[in-house]
Structures are given as C-alpha cells and as structure tokens.
Automatic annotation (TrEMBL):
Residue spans crossing the bilayer: none
Molecular function terms from GO: metal ion binding
Name this polypeptide is given: Uncharacterized damage-inducible protein DinB (Forms a four-helix bundle)
Keywords from the named record: Metal-binding
Family matches, as InterPro entries: DinB, DinB/YfiT-like
Superkingdom of origin organism: Bacteria
Signal peptide: none
Residues the entry annotates as binding a divalent metal cation: H46, H130, H134
Family the UniProt entry places it in: Belongs to the DinB family.
Lineage of the organism: Bacteria, Pseudomonadati, Pseudomonadota, Betaproteobacteria, Burkholderiales
Length: 206
C-alpha cells in the first residue's frame, strides 16, 4: 500500500469518526452538562481550525487565523458542518496530489510565530493524528459526564478497526462467501413456533 493510499484510508476514517462523534455530542445536553458540552465543542473546533490552517499550508497560501482556536464557540450544527466540509476537502485533495508532491517540503509559520518545515505527507499525518488525539479527549469527557448522571450518552466506537468493519461488512466473512439465505417452505403454524423459527434465522447473522 502506498503512502497516498494509506492517507486516503486514514482520512476516510477521520471523516467517519468525526461524523460519529458529532452525532454522539448531540446527546451531551446543554441543560445538564453545559461545561462538558462547551469543552467538547471547543476541542473539536480547535481540530477544525488546525485542519483549515494546514490546508492553507498544503497549498502554500496564507490564512487569517492568529491562534489555534476561535475566540467564539460555534453551535454544534455549525461545527458539524465545518468538520464535514474540511474532511471532504482533504479527501478531494488526496485524490489529486501526486507522490512527488507528498514528498515536497514546505516552509510555513505556526500561529505562535515560530517557523515550520514539513513535507505534505508529514502535514497530512499530523492533521489526522492530531484530530484523533482530541476526539479521545472528548470521548473521555463524555464518558465521565455519562457516569455522573442518569442521562444516557451514547459513545462512538472510535477505532480504525471498527470503522473498517462497519463500512466494509464483507470483512466479517474473512474472504469467504456469505452464508446462503434460508428459504422457508411454509410459515410455522403458531406464535411459539414462529418465535423459535425467528431465533433460528438470527443465528445466520451472528
């Protein structure tokens, strides 16, 4: 697998994981968990800002950010749309960038004024690992909030393995063909037999 192919897979994973996390964060009530919700939004907004900054670096262009987060805190819907858009941008970028471009080093300036010098491949790796680090922080905050209240908060399974098997369910067959469908000649006569019959069919999906 080439570096381009691996990066494309990792950014597909990031787009999926960010979407899953945004959905889960909608269950973090502003009424019951205002501090945790704001903290989570601020962290993911930081990811969005950094992703936008490095998109500019990849293009060799300037940007308007003077810090690695915005002064204001966006609403969750705005953040979700922003993350989806930047994730789409990176996927589109990876379709067009060549191996030679990936290995090219680019000078840039960090928001604190210090100089930076990274290849495009290194920048892309930074973006995807940086966001994963902060998703982990948000997940921890959400787990604590869920444990401290009666409110149930659904936590996403943010792992690359989970992503691969959810988006490519054929991996469960390990290269084997799926089991054939079961065809029933006639419906069982009573409710009890129908129940046992349905349970038997479910075994094919395990």
């Amino acid at each position: 697998m080439s570096a381009s192919e691996l990066l494309l897979k990792m950014f597909r994973y990031q787009a999926w994981a960010n979407g899953e996390l945004m959905e889960a964060m909608s269950g973090l009530s502003a009424e019951h968990h205002p501090a945790e919700r704001r903290f989570a939004i601020r962290l993911m907004n930081h990811c969005l800002v950094v992703s936008r900054i490095f998109a500019a670096h990849l293009l060799g262009k300037g940007h308007h950010f003077t810090a690695d987060n915005t002064p204001g805190t966006p609403e969750l819907a705005e953040l979700r749309a922003g993350l989806a858009a930047i994730d789409r941008w990176y996927l589109d970028y990876l379709w067009m960038v060549s191996p030679a471009m990936l290995s090219e080093s680019i000078p840039f300036v960090f928001t604190d004024g210090s100089d930076g010098y990274m290849t495009r491949e290194e920048m892309l790796t930074h973006v995807v690992t940086h966001c994963g680090y902060h998703r982990g922080e948000v997940g921890r905050v959400m787990a604590q909030a869920s444990g401290e209240s009666d409110e149930s908060i659904s936590l996403p399974r943010d792992t690359y393995a989970a992503h691969l098997h959810r988006t490519e369910p054929s991996r469960r067959f390990r290269g084997r063909a799926p089991l054939p469908a079961v065809h029933i000649a006639q419906e069982p006569a009573n409710a009890t037999s129908r129940m046992f019959h349905a349970a038997a069919l479910l075994l094919w999906d395990v």
